[in-house]
Design brief:
Oligomer: single chain
Helix content: over 70%
Order of helices and strands: HHHHHHHHHHHHHHHHH
Number of strands: 0
Strand content: under 5%
Largest sheet: none
Structural class: mainly alpha
Distance between the termini: 47 Å
């Protein structure tokens, strides 16, 4: 209780100052009718009980029984954020011993020992205990358990959900997130095919629950704001800057696809089928956006382009710098590929010309991002410059092409 007593002592001091201020305000109002000597005597008399009345106030407002304490504070007109902070502090003290018991040897573990590789069973127990603590706060404070910042975020998430259904949707979402966290904790954060299947099963279960609460049109509006597909799509389209109409169209295409699970031991036939599905999706997107915006989509959703866009923003360069960097990249790569396909070139000559291209590309990049931006660019969006240098042992500087398969989340 020591932290709590410290908080209360500080707040008591603030209350006493406020009471003294009120006393001085009252003195000012009656100054015209009070004699100077009587005024001083009255102030002396009022000052003595001020400190004790402040201490008595906090003694009366606080209680070992948390519901009683909350009720007293609310009756006294204490602001919600103060009540929330005090209740959260009291609950933390209540749960502290249980948290400590889960990792009883943490305090005695030598500093050179790994303390992050926690047993999944302990991690799950900690998550459950944390959820229990949060639930206790919600049960105690109701709507006041959410901070103003969280309330704004929650309001945005549930802006299309009818008010009488918000609590049901929140409960369904909370249950889904708790179950998903249990899966992640059990797998120690390793995203395995088995974890993918479990998460997908949870997502289908969650969607079925939401469908029992919301009609189809409201469920669509909720998903387009909150689903994994929508969140991933927003991230992928950050450099594309879509309109609402474009985002809705792309979301529709993405959400209609069945989630794909990539496994290390996939057969060539399975990989071919997944690649074909991605090709079909790209064609659908191009047809939906049209040739101009379709080309901009292809460019803006390229991983290297997105990284370069973020770097340009951090360097506070003009927005069109990203497009100029992309044009340099495409020009140099086109010429480099032509050199690699030219069978008439001797390996030494090819290597020399690729090195010259790498130098030219670096100089053109430097003109766009400045000297300080060249090295960061090579790491964030410009690794194509490094690929121009032939790898040791590679025939004529050939590079290995890898195919990245991206999992599409559920609705």
């Amino acid at each position: 209780m020591k932290p709590l007593l410290s908080i209360l002592a500080a707040l008591s001091l603030c209350a006493n100052i406020a009471l003294v201020a009120l006393l001085f305000a009252g003195r000012g109002e009656s100054a015209s009718t009070a004699a100077a000597s009587g005024e001083a005597a009255g102030k002396a008399k009022a000052a003595a009980p001020a400190a004790s009345s402040g201490a008595d106030m906090w003694t009366n407002l606080t209680a070992e029984d948390l519901p009683t304490m909350v009720q007293r504070l609310r009756t006294a007109g204490a602001p919600p954020e103060f009540i929330r902070a005090l209740a959260a502090a009291r609950l933390s003290e209540t749960f502290a011993a249980r948290f400590k018991a889960l990792r009883g040897d943490a305090a005695s573990k030598p500093f050179w020992k790994n303390s992050t590789n926690v047993d999944p069973t302990i991690r799950n127990a900690e998550m459950k205990l944390y959820r229990e603590q949060q639930k206790a706060l919600r049960d105690l404070l109701g709507a006041d358990a959410e901070s103003p910042e969280t309330s704004v975020y929650q309001q945005r998430r549930f802006e299309t959900v009818p008010p009488d259904k918000v609590d049901e949707v929140k409960d369904a979402l909370r249950l889904f997130e708790e179950k998903r966290q249990e899966v992640f904790s059990a797998m120690m954060g390793t995203y395995t095919p088995d974890m993918q299947r479990k998460i997908q099963a949870l997502e289908k279960e969650h969607q079925a629950t939401l469908a029992s609460i919301l009609p189809p049109d409201q469920l669509l509006e909720y998903n387009i704001r909150n689903s994994d597909t929508a969140q991933q799509l927003r991230s992928n389209l950050a450099a594309f800057n879509p309109t609402e109409e474009e985002f809705r169209a792309l979301y529709k295409l993405q959400s209609q696809r069945e989630p794909e699970i990539y496994t290390p031991n996939m057969s060539q036939e399975e990989i071919k089928r997944m690649s074909e599905n991605q090709r079909v999706l790209r064609e659908q997107i191009q047809a939906t956006l049209g040739p101009v915006r379709g080309a901009e989509y292809e460019r803006a959703t390229d991983y290297q382009y997105r990284q370069a866009s973020q770097l340009v923003s951090r360097l506070e360069l003009p927005a069109d710098t990203t497009n100029k960097l992309w044009d340099v990249k495409k020009d140099i790569e086109t010429r480099a590929n032509a050199l690699r396909r030219d069978s008439s070139l001797a390996p030494a000559a090819r290597t020399q010309q690729l090195a010259a291209l790498a130098q030219e590309g670096t100089q053109r990049v430097q003109q766009l991002v400045g000297t300080r931006g060249v090295e960061p660019y090579k790491q964030y969006g410009g690794n194509w410059l490094q690929s121009l240098t032939p790898r040791p042992g590679g025939p004529g500087g050939t590079t290995t092409t890898t195919t990245t398969i991206i999992r599409t989340p559920g609705p």
